[in-house]
Amino acid sequence: MDPVDLEGLTDRALRSLPTPRAPRSLLPRVLAAVAAEASRPWYARAWLSWPLHWQLVSGAATVSVVITAMFIGPAMAAAMLEFATSMSLPVSSYLAGTVRSLDAVWDASRIVWRVVGPGLRYVALFLLVMSAACVAFGTALDRVVALGGASES
Amino acid sequence: MSDAEDFEAFVRAHQDMVYATALRLLGRPADAEDVAQTVFLRAFRHHASLAGNPAAPGWLKTVATNLCLNHLTRYRARWRLFSEIGSASDTTGAPQSFEETLPAPTVADQPFEAQQQAAALEAAIRRLPDHQRVPLVLFHFEQQSYQEIASTLRISVGKVKTDIHRGREALRNHMTGQRFEVGGQK
Question: Is the CB of residue A20 less than 8 Å away from at least one CB of chain B?
Fold first, then answer.
Protein backbone atom coordinates (compact mmCIF):
# COMPACT_ATOMS: atom_id res chain seq x y z
CA MET A 1 0.00 0.00 0.00
CA ASP A 2 1.26 3.47 -0.90
CA PRO A 3 2.54 5.19 2.27
CA VAL A 4 0.42 8.25 1.47
CA ASP A 5 -2.69 6.07 1.20
CA LEU A 6 -1.79 4.34 4.45
CA GLU A 7 -1.33 7.69 6.19
CA GLY A 8 -4.69 8.93 4.94
CA LEU A 9 -6.52 5.73 5.82
CA THR A 10 -4.92 5.60 9.28
CA ASP A 11 -5.70 9.26 9.91
CA ARG A 12 -9.37 8.82 8.95
CA ALA A 13 -9.71 5.69 11.06
CA LEU A 14 -8.08 7.25 14.13
CA ARG A 15 -9.94 10.56 13.88
CA SER A 16 -13.25 8.70 13.73
CA LEU A 17 -12.58 7.06 17.09
CA PRO A 18 -14.78 8.27 19.95
CA THR A 19 -13.01 9.76 22.95
CA PRO A 20 -12.40 7.06 25.57
CA ARG A 21 -14.37 7.75 28.71
CA ALA A 22 -12.52 8.43 31.93
CA PRO A 23 -13.06 5.70 34.56
CA ARG A 24 -15.58 6.45 37.28
CA SER A 25 -12.80 6.27 39.85
CA LEU A 26 -10.95 9.30 38.43
CA LEU A 27 -13.19 12.08 39.75
CA PRO A 28 -13.22 10.80 43.37
CA ARG A 29 -9.44 10.36 43.23
CA VAL A 30 -8.94 13.90 41.96
CA LEU A 31 -11.28 15.39 44.57
CA ALA A 32 -9.55 13.42 47.34
CA ALA A 33 -6.11 14.59 46.18
CA VAL A 34 -7.34 18.18 45.95
CA ALA A 35 -8.87 17.98 49.44
CA ALA A 36 -5.57 16.65 50.81
CA GLU A 37 -3.66 19.43 49.05
CA ALA A 38 -6.04 22.12 50.29
CA SER A 39 -5.84 20.89 53.90
CA ARG A 40 -2.07 21.31 54.00
CA PRO A 41 -0.73 24.60 55.41
CA TRP A 42 0.77 26.94 52.81
CA TYR A 43 4.36 26.34 53.98
CA ALA A 44 3.99 22.56 53.50
CA ARG A 45 3.19 22.99 49.81
CA ALA A 46 5.53 23.52 46.89
CA TRP A 47 7.47 26.82 47.12
CA LEU A 48 5.95 28.05 43.84
CA SER A 49 2.46 27.84 45.37
CA TRP A 50 3.39 30.01 48.37
CA PRO A 51 1.85 33.48 48.65
CA LEU A 52 3.97 35.91 46.66
CA HIS A 53 5.12 37.96 49.63
CA TRP A 54 6.38 34.82 51.41
CA GLN A 55 8.23 33.77 48.26
CA LEU A 56 9.97 37.14 48.19
CA VAL A 57 10.75 37.00 51.92
CA SER A 58 12.15 33.46 51.75
CA GLY A 59 14.14 34.27 48.62
CA ALA A 60 15.61 37.38 50.19
CA ALA A 61 16.40 35.47 53.39
CA THR A 62 18.19 32.71 51.45
CA VAL A 63 20.28 35.21 49.49
CA SER A 64 21.10 37.09 52.71
CA VAL A 65 22.24 33.91 54.44
CA VAL A 66 24.49 32.98 51.51
CA ILE A 67 26.04 36.45 51.27
CA THR A 68 26.48 36.67 55.05
CA ALA A 69 28.15 33.26 55.12
CA MET A 70 30.49 34.35 52.37
CA PHE A 71 31.62 37.44 54.25
CA ILE A 72 31.61 36.40 57.89
CA GLY A 73 32.23 32.70 57.32
CA PRO A 74 36.04 32.91 57.46
CA ALA A 75 35.92 34.97 60.66
CA MET A 76 33.57 32.48 62.26
CA ALA A 77 35.72 29.56 61.16
CA ALA A 78 38.85 31.21 62.54
CA ALA A 79 37.06 31.86 65.83
CA MET A 80 35.98 28.23 66.01
CA LEU A 81 39.52 27.05 65.29
CA GLU A 82 40.95 29.35 67.95
CA PHE A 83 38.40 28.09 70.45
CA ALA A 84 39.17 24.46 69.63
CA THR A 85 42.92 25.08 69.91
CA SER A 86 42.56 26.91 73.21
CA MET A 87 40.55 24.03 74.57
CA SER A 88 43.15 21.56 73.25
CA LEU A 89 40.39 19.51 71.82
CA PRO A 90 41.57 16.31 70.13
CA VAL A 91 39.77 17.21 66.92
CA SER A 92 41.55 20.55 66.51
CA SER A 93 43.94 19.30 63.77
CA TYR A 94 41.04 17.86 61.78
CA LEU A 95 39.10 21.05 62.36
CA ALA A 96 42.11 23.10 61.22
CA GLY A 97 42.22 21.19 57.93
CA THR A 98 38.50 21.64 57.41
CA VAL A 99 38.68 25.33 58.19
CA ARG A 100 41.55 25.80 55.72
CA SER A 101 39.54 24.08 53.00
CA LEU A 102 36.46 26.19 53.74
CA ASP A 103 38.63 29.30 53.80
CA ALA A 104 39.89 28.52 50.32
CA VAL A 105 36.33 27.99 49.07
CA TRP A 106 35.16 31.26 50.61
CA ASP A 107 38.11 33.18 49.19
CA ALA A 108 37.39 31.76 45.74
CA SER A 109 33.70 32.67 46.07
CA ARG A 110 34.55 36.22 47.04
CA ILE A 111 36.90 36.59 44.10
CA VAL A 112 34.22 35.31 41.75
CA TRP A 113 31.69 37.69 43.34
CA ARG A 114 34.06 40.63 42.95
CA VAL A 115 34.43 39.87 39.24
CA VAL A 116 30.85 38.89 38.45
CA GLY A 117 28.97 40.89 41.10
CA PRO A 118 28.82 44.30 39.41
CA GLY A 119 27.39 42.76 36.24
CA LEU A 120 24.90 40.67 38.20
CA ARG A 121 23.10 43.80 39.38
CA TYR A 122 22.30 44.71 35.79
CA VAL A 123 21.32 41.12 35.00
CA ALA A 124 19.00 41.08 38.02
CA LEU A 125 17.50 44.40 36.99
CA PHE A 126 16.99 43.15 33.43
CA LEU A 127 15.31 39.95 34.69
CA LEU A 128 13.07 41.98 36.99
CA VAL A 129 11.97 44.29 34.17
CA MET A 130 11.34 41.38 31.77
CA SER A 131 9.38 39.46 34.43
CA ALA A 132 7.22 42.49 35.11
CA ALA A 133 6.64 42.94 31.38
CA CYS A 134 5.65 39.27 31.03
CA VAL A 135 3.23 39.53 33.96
CA ALA A 136 1.69 42.68 32.51
CA PHE A 137 1.41 41.16 29.04
CA GLY A 138 -0.05 37.94 30.38
CA THR A 139 -2.63 39.79 32.48
CA ALA A 140 -3.63 41.96 29.53
CA LEU A 141 -3.90 38.90 27.26
CA ASP A 142 -6.02 37.10 29.84
CA ARG A 143 -8.39 40.04 29.98
CA VAL A 144 -8.62 40.27 26.20
CA VAL A 145 -9.32 36.53 25.91
CA ALA A 146 -11.89 36.69 28.71
CA LEU A 147 -13.62 39.67 27.08
CA GLY A 148 -13.59 37.91 23.73
CA GLY A 149 -15.09 34.78 25.28
CA ALA A 150 -17.76 36.80 27.07
CA SER A 151 -18.77 38.67 23.93
CA GLU A 152 -19.05 35.43 21.93
CA SER A 153 -21.28 33.88 24.55
CA MET B 1 -21.66 27.70 42.78
CA SER B 2 -18.90 27.28 45.36
CA ASP B 3 -15.24 26.89 44.41
CA ALA B 4 -15.34 23.15 45.14
CA GLU B 5 -18.43 22.64 42.98
CA ASP B 6 -16.91 24.84 40.30
CA PHE B 7 -13.75 22.75 40.22
CA GLU B 8 -15.72 19.50 40.21
CA ALA B 9 -17.68 20.74 37.20
CA PHE B 10 -14.36 21.67 35.57
CA VAL B 11 -13.02 18.14 36.11
CA ARG B 12 -16.22 16.54 34.78
CA ALA B 13 -16.05 18.71 31.67
CA HIS B 14 -12.47 17.81 30.78
CA GLN B 15 -11.73 14.43 32.35
CA ASP B 16 -12.52 12.41 29.22
CA MET B 17 -10.20 14.51 27.08
CA VAL B 18 -7.35 14.39 29.60
CA TYR B 19 -7.76 10.67 30.23
CA ALA B 20 -7.94 9.91 26.50
CA THR B 21 -4.74 11.85 25.84
CA ALA B 22 -2.91 10.01 28.61
CA LEU B 23 -4.33 6.60 27.67
CA ARG B 24 -3.37 6.88 24.04
CA LEU B 25 0.15 8.04 24.88
CA LEU B 26 0.85 5.60 27.71
CA GLY B 27 -1.18 2.63 26.54
CA ARG B 28 -1.95 1.59 30.12
CA PRO B 29 -5.22 2.58 31.82
CA ALA B 30 -3.75 2.59 35.35
CA ASP B 31 -0.88 4.89 34.37
CA ALA B 32 -3.25 7.08 32.40
CA GLU B 33 -5.48 7.51 35.44
CA ASP B 34 -2.45 8.44 37.59
CA VAL B 35 -1.34 11.05 35.06
CA ALA B 36 -4.87 12.41 34.73
CA GLN B 37 -5.05 12.85 38.51
CA THR B 38 -1.74 14.74 38.49
CA VAL B 39 -2.94 16.96 35.64
CA PHE B 40 -6.06 17.98 37.55
CA LEU B 41 -4.09 18.51 40.75
CA ARG B 42 -1.93 21.01 38.85
CA ALA B 43 -5.07 22.51 37.34
CA PHE B 44 -6.41 22.98 40.86
CA ARG B 45 -3.33 25.07 41.76
CA HIS B 46 -4.04 27.31 38.76
CA HIS B 47 -7.81 27.11 38.95
CA ALA B 48 -8.23 30.83 39.43
CA SER B 49 -6.73 31.52 36.00
CA LEU B 50 -8.15 28.43 34.25
CA ALA B 51 -11.80 28.70 35.30
CA GLY B 52 -13.86 29.89 32.34
CA ASN B 53 -10.71 30.35 30.27
CA PRO B 54 -11.12 29.10 26.67
CA ALA B 55 -7.42 28.18 26.71
CA ALA B 56 -8.00 25.68 29.56
CA PRO B 57 -8.47 22.57 27.34
CA GLY B 58 -5.25 23.35 25.47
CA TRP B 59 -3.41 23.89 28.76
CA LEU B 60 -4.71 20.58 30.14
CA LYS B 61 -3.75 18.70 26.99
CA THR B 62 -0.26 20.20 26.99
CA VAL B 63 0.31 19.33 30.65
CA ALA B 64 -1.05 15.80 30.10
CA THR B 65 1.21 15.28 27.09
CA ASN B 66 4.29 16.54 28.95
CA LEU B 67 3.56 14.39 32.01
CA CYS B 68 3.11 11.33 29.81
CA LEU B 69 6.38 11.98 28.02
CA ASN B 70 8.14 12.46 31.38
CA HIS B 71 6.61 9.18 32.53
CA LEU B 72 7.92 7.45 29.43
CA THR B 73 11.35 9.10 29.68
CA ARG B 74 12.46 6.61 32.28
CA TYR B 75 12.16 4.01 29.51
CA ARG B 76 14.04 6.16 27.00
CA ALA B 77 17.06 3.89 26.77
CA ARG B 78 14.86 0.87 26.07
CA TRP B 79 12.84 3.00 23.68
CA ARG B 80 15.85 4.04 21.60
CA LEU B 81 17.22 0.51 21.59
CA PHE B 82 14.03 -1.02 20.25
CA SER B 83 13.51 1.81 17.82
CA GLU B 84 16.98 1.23 16.37
CA ILE B 85 16.61 -2.53 16.23
CA GLY B 86 13.16 -2.21 14.63
CA SER B 87 12.53 -5.93 14.60
CA ALA B 88 9.42 -7.63 13.25
CA SER B 89 8.50 -8.52 16.80
CA ASP B 90 7.74 -4.83 17.45
CA THR B 91 4.02 -5.42 17.02
CA THR B 92 3.84 -7.96 19.84
CA GLY B 93 4.60 -5.43 22.61
CA ALA B 94 4.58 -6.20 26.31
CA PRO B 95 2.35 -8.91 27.78
CA GLN B 96 -1.17 -7.65 28.18
CA SER B 97 -2.97 -7.33 31.47
CA PHE B 98 -6.61 -8.42 31.68
CA GLU B 99 -7.59 -4.77 31.97
CA GLU B 100 -5.92 -3.99 28.65
CA THR B 101 -7.93 -6.68 26.90
CA LEU B 102 -11.17 -4.97 27.87
CA PRO B 103 -12.59 -2.72 25.16
CA ALA B 104 -12.53 0.99 25.78
CA PRO B 105 -15.86 2.62 26.65
CA THR B 106 -17.62 3.75 23.49
CA VAL B 107 -20.27 6.22 22.53
CA ALA B 108 -23.62 4.58 23.16
CA ASP B 109 -25.33 5.92 20.06
CA GLN B 110 -22.93 4.24 17.60
CA PRO B 111 -24.00 1.05 15.87
CA PHE B 112 -22.81 -2.00 17.79
CA GLU B 113 -20.45 -3.16 15.02
CA ALA B 114 -18.89 0.30 14.81
CA GLN B 115 -18.44 0.23 18.59
CA GLN B 116 -16.67 -3.10 18.40
CA GLN B 117 -14.42 -1.90 15.60
CA ALA B 118 -13.59 1.29 17.49
CA ALA B 119 -12.83 -0.71 20.65
CA ALA B 120 -10.62 -3.08 18.68
CA LEU B 121 -8.71 -0.16 17.12
CA GLU B 122 -8.21 1.48 20.51
CA ALA B 123 -6.92 -1.82 21.91
CA ALA B 124 -4.60 -2.19 18.91
CA ILE B 125 -3.18 1.29 19.54
CA ARG B 126 -2.51 0.40 23.17
CA ARG B 127 -0.76 -2.82 22.11
CA LEU B 128 1.76 -0.92 20.02
CA PRO B 129 5.20 -0.62 21.62
CA ASP B 130 5.91 2.80 23.15
CA HIS B 131 8.33 3.94 20.43
CA GLN B 132 5.66 3.44 17.75
CA ARG B 133 2.54 4.42 19.68
CA VAL B 134 3.79 7.76 21.06
CA PRO B 135 4.85 9.32 17.72
CA LEU B 136 1.72 7.92 16.07
CA VAL B 137 -0.54 9.47 18.71
CA LEU B 138 1.31 12.80 18.62
CA PHE B 139 0.97 12.88 14.82
CA HIS B 140 -2.63 11.79 14.36
CA PHE B 141 -4.31 12.96 17.58
CA GLU B 142 -2.19 15.96 18.61
CA GLN B 143 -1.55 17.11 15.01
CA GLN B 144 2.15 17.60 15.60
CA SER B 145 4.51 17.64 12.62
CA TYR B 146 7.36 15.17 12.19
CA GLN B 147 9.83 17.90 13.14
CA GLU B 148 7.90 18.80 16.29
CA ILE B 149 7.66 15.16 17.32
CA ALA B 150 11.37 14.64 16.71
CA SER B 151 12.14 17.71 18.80
CA THR B 152 9.80 16.62 21.61
CA LEU B 153 11.10 13.06 21.75
CA ARG B 154 14.73 14.01 21.02
CA ILE B 155 15.08 11.58 18.16
CA SER B 156 15.75 12.13 14.48
CA VAL B 157 13.00 12.98 11.97
CA GLY B 158 13.88 9.84 10.05
CA LYS B 159 13.31 7.71 13.14
CA VAL B 160 9.97 9.41 13.74
CA LYS B 161 8.83 8.67 10.20
CA THR B 162 10.02 5.07 10.42
CA ASP B 163 8.35 4.44 13.77
CA ILE B 164 5.07 6.05 12.68
CA HIS B 165 5.06 4.06 9.46
CA ARG B 166 5.66 0.81 11.36
CA GLY B 167 2.91 1.74 13.79
CA ARG B 168 0.48 2.30 10.91
CA GLU B 169 1.51 -1.01 9.35
CA ALA B 170 0.97 -2.78 12.67
CA LEU B 171 -2.48 -1.22 13.04
CA ARG B 172 -3.38 -2.13 9.47
CA ASN B 173 -2.18 -5.73 9.97
CA HIS B 174 -4.12 -6.02 13.21
CA MET B 175 -7.23 -4.55 11.69
CA THR B 176 -6.93 -6.71 8.59
CA GLY B 177 -6.71 -9.72 10.85
CA GLN B 178 -9.84 -8.52 12.64
CA ARG B 179 -11.55 -7.91 9.26
CA PHE B 180 -11.84 -4.25 10.19
CA GLU B 181 -12.78 -1.75 7.51
CA VAL B 182 -10.38 1.18 7.48
CA GLY B 183 -11.88 4.09 5.58
CA GLY B 184 -14.18 1.75 3.72
CA GLN B 185 -11.38 -0.47 2.44
CA LYS B 186 -10.36 -3.90 3.72
Answer: yes
Q: Which fold has domain B1-74?
A: Rna Polymerase Sigma Factor; Chain: A (1.10.1740)
Number of domains in chain A: 1
Yes or no, beta carbons of A6 and B52 under 8 Å apart? no
Asked if B178 is an interface residue toward chain A (Cβ–Cβ < 8 A), one would say no
The CA distance from A138 to A122, in Å, is 24
Domain ranges (residues) in chain B = 1-74, 94-186
Q: Residue A21: which domain range?
A: 3-152
Amino acid at A100: R
Task: Dump pLDDT digits (tens) for A40-86.
Answer: 888 887 787 788 888 899 999 998 888 787 777 777 777 877 777 77
Alpha-helix residue ranges (DSSP H) falling in A1-91? 3-15, 26-39, 52-86
ipTM of the complex: 0.70
Q: What is the rounded CA–CA span in Å between residue B64 and residue B142?
A: 12
Tens digits of per-residue pLDDT, A77-104?
778 777 777 777 666 677 777 777 877 8
CB contact under 8 A, A10 and B11: no
- Global confidence as pTM: 0.62
Answer yes or no: CATH 1.10.10.10 is held by domain B94-186: yes
Instruction: Please compute the mean of the pLDDT values over residues A20-36 and round it to a whole number.
Output: 93
